[in-house]
């Protein structure tokens, strides 16, 4: 077995305990087959191709009974860590995963790259760009994409209420990388209201770095997203 390098190390943490309600798939969307294997298998394969990540922990729901028979079956020889410590919200699942990383020897100063299972088009070179930009940084950061469309606010009736200045707006993606001690403290403080790690860190008065990636790093969310992801993965 290869010795695990000393701190600070870089871990990936993949929250995969959601139910995928908006996807309309009738099953947790991470298990929907896209281009020949479950979405989560694509995500884990991309992270496994980044040598600077010492290990990946995938966080499943305590009730999950599909991972081994579908995802592991599609990834022969996969040696990542698995923990059934998911919670009712994404933030709770991430906090469960951070506690599991600590149980397995990770320390406050280690970096954790949190990446949505549902962003299955991740490319190793984008993770490398994030690491290059954030490893020398005290705070950490996230992959993101500047908004290219004109931004509208709308009401419940589907009518425009305002046009929003888009010049400083970015769409947040994942991975989002922070030191374990910092992101754990931030998420504990913000609780389930945190829709991503960066917003919790921002609430502590810090300014995460924005690292441009690609629109292709989108999150499979709606029914039509599966076909788009399949086309891109097949290509
Ligand atoms: N309680 C939860 C909720 C979400 N997630 C994970 O967080 C990522 C981003 O969440 P999202 O795209 O919203 O997934 P779901 O919560 O599954 O989708 P929906 O909101 O449509 O139900 C996904 O990889 C999802 O599995 C999680 O681990 N635990
Ligand atoms: C973390 C995230 O993917 C960044 O864009 C996003 O906030 C997750 O939101 P969701 O509502 O849990 O899909």
TrEMBL record:
The record marks 22, 29 as: Transition state stabilizer. CDD domains: CDP-ME_synthetase (cd02516). Pfam families: IspD. One of its GO terms (biological process) is isopentenyl diphosphate biosynthetic process, methylerythritol 4-phosphate pathway. One of its GO terms (molecular function) is 2-C-methyl-D-erythritol 4-phosphate cytidylyltransferase activity. InterPro entries: IspD, IspD/TarI, IspD/TarI_cytidylyltransf_bact, ISPD_synthase_CS, Nucleotide-diphossugar_trans. PROSITE patterns: ISPD. Transmembrane segments: none annotated. Pathway: Isoprenoid biosynthesis; isopentenyl diphosphate biosynthesis via DXP pathway; isopentenyl diphosphate from 1-deoxy-D-xylulose 5-phosphate: step 2/6. Its EC number is 2.7.7.60. It catalyses: 2-C-methyl-D-erythritol 4-phosphate + CTP + H(+) = 4-CDP-2-C-methyl-D-erythritol + diphosphate. Keywords: Isoprene biosynthesis, Nucleotidyltransferase, Transferase. It is an enzyme of class 2 (transferase). The record marks 166, 219 as: Positions MEP for the nucleophilic attack. Belongs to the IspD/TarI cytidylyltransferase family. IspD subfamily. Catalyzes the formation of 4-diphosphocytidyl-2-C-methyl-D-erythritol from CTP and 2-C-methyl-D-erythritol 4-phosphate (MEP). PANTHER family: 2-C-METHYL-D-ERYTHRITOL 4-PHOSPHATE CYTIDYLYLTRANSFERASE, CHLOROPLASTIC (PTHR32125:SF4). This is 2-C-methyl-D-erythritol 4-phosphate cytidylyltransferase. It comes from Pelomonas aquatica.
